[in-house]
Amino acid sequence: MSARRVLRFGLWGLAGAVLAGVGLLVWFGAWHYPALGLSGIPKDGYRQAMEIAARGMTAADGLRFEDFDFLKYREVERGGEAYAWGAARCRAADGATTFYWVYLEWSKKRGQWLRNYSLELAAPDDEIYFTRLSPGQLGRAKLAAGKLLGQLASRVREALAAAK
Asked: Could you identify which of 2, 5, 117, 130 might form a hypothetical disulfide with 103, taking C-beta atoms 3.0 to 4.6 angstroms apart as the criterion?
């Protein structure tokens, strides 16, 4: 086999591996993770769904869920949708109180609650976004990308912990 042919097969193999990895990430983020641990909870069981989601998400970030300081549920009159959101009060490892925003939606298609959006409110690394001159636009883009990858890693940790 010629070196050129080996290189071509290697590049196709690498492209296939990258596409498989991207496909796995899309499947995980769009299908598997949003439903993690929430099947079988009825639409009016939003409090239970919120607690399960909050406990899993906060534990993956090294926080201990205590309770919700704010919890809201809204069922849409037409279409079958429902939403639940709230601020979960948590305890950090150093004993400080921190809050985690949890937002779930009822999927009529899947007949269950799904995680839609969540994040730690006022996380220690958030203030860098409001610093006017430092780290600069490229540095902020790197910080934002790092934060997104950190959230993905947190979700993978949560999924692995749930699988045990």
From this structure: 117
